[in-house]
Amino acid sequence: MAQNSRLTGFRTLTVQERREAVARESGVEPAVFDALEPGGLGVEAAEHMIENVVGVMGIPVGVATNVTVNGRDVLVPMATEEPSVVAAASNAARIARVRGGFTTSSTGPVMQAQVQVVDVVDPAGARLRVLEARDELIALAAAQDPKLAEVGGGVLDLTVRTVEAPGATYVVAHLVVDVRDAMGANAVNTMAEAVAPRLAEIAGGRAVLRILTNKADLRLSRARAVLDAEALGGAEIVDDMIHAYRLAAADPYRAATHNKGIMNGVSAVVLATGNDTRAVEAGAHSHAVNADGVYSSLSTFEKNADGDIVATLELPMPVGLVGGATRSHPAARAAIAVTEVTTARELGELVTAVGLAQNIAAVRALAGEGIQRGHMSLHAKNIAIAVGAAGDEVDRVVAVLISEKAFRHDRAEAVLAELRSR
Asked: What is the pLDDT of residues 203-242, one digit of tens each?
């Protein structure tokens, strides 16, 4: 891990100076950043990643500083187009450092694939017949990827459910698979397709769907931090942060935005490391539905006996270090090198810690000065650039917009025109 993620003044450095600082602290070769240059992913390489390629779209990649996870400092690449995300994560991580940073844990890298069987006349009986053939079906699935067992993974179990739907009762089998350092979609999908004909035969029906579930509730990552009340801004801020959390826990309208703030951090790290943002987001939002069937907050905020906040977050985290864009995209390889993670579990825990940091920053801002003050100040740069400001014009336009609290394109155009007329 990084020697020191507390890089004071990092935001004031030039891009080249930031690269040198990250290389120095993380131990990666400076050449690793070549992959983050425009053209790091060329059209020819993109042609082999997806179909009908016409070009490559760039997304800014920043580095979150101040992050400490399980006592080790980490510099975290984040890919996002939204202003204030990287700065907010870094600021919240700085606050968390006061009490030791983030503590993380996780379950094993276990994914599930579903096989749906239809037209079964005796669903309850079929369920038991399939369970009686468990060993046979597990062996058939395992034969599809013997390498997985060699590295300590493989099929762990087969479970069977009956699912009631309008006009039908489906028999649904779940293959439970330890996928090790892969995200695992290809492995479990291949297994599901291989066992589906035999499974349908045993059940006395017809197999339709044979695919993984993105509700990865057996592959959980957790993060926890104690937030010093004084570092947050005092007892009143603490109380208001608790109120903000409680509304998110009770009200789906607030929970949707509260959880979106978490995903600002999660998706940025997932994207930077070449993992599947849609899979992680789907799993997270399904996890946000509580036992009563109500969409609620993914995180929790509590006040401890010392008056500090204890913030926690648990998420399904289907991310990997092998396969897909994590290997084929040069920028993803560079990002993973900077984080210095060596296992998918470690990456998942880091992603969850950054999601919690992002959440802490947003809730603190909402409980204090409001979200727009910091966010719109950073967004002003986008507005200035959008209206054509260049070089030192950007900072001059931004200064006026901030002073007037007028974050509008028409005002930015007028300010720029005035600057150029002098």
From this structure: 999 999 999 999 999 999 999 999 999 999 999 999 999 9
Work out the burial of residue 134: count CB atoms within 10 Å of its CB; fewer than 13 is exposed, 13-18 middle, 19 or more buried. Answer: middle
How far from chain centre, in Å, is Cα 140? 33
Give the tens place of pLDDT for each residue, 340-374.
999 999 999 999 999 999 999 999 999 987 555 55
**Cα(147)–Cα(323) distance, integer angstroms:** 14
Q: What's the rounded Cα separation, in Å, for the pair 103 and 101?
A: 7
What 3-state DSSP class applies to 179? Answer: coil
Residue linked to tokens 């801004």 = 233
Query: In this structure, what DSSP letter does residue 168 have?
Result: E
Beta bridge partners of 397: none
Q: How far apart are the first and last CA of the chain?
A: 51
* Amino acid at the residue 253: Y
Active site residues: 82, 260, 276, 375
**Residue 290 binned pLDDT confidence (cut-offs 50, 70, 90):** very high
DSSP states along 258-313: HHHHHHHHHHHHHHHTT--HHHHHHHHHHHTB-TTS-B--SEEEEE-TTS-EEEEE
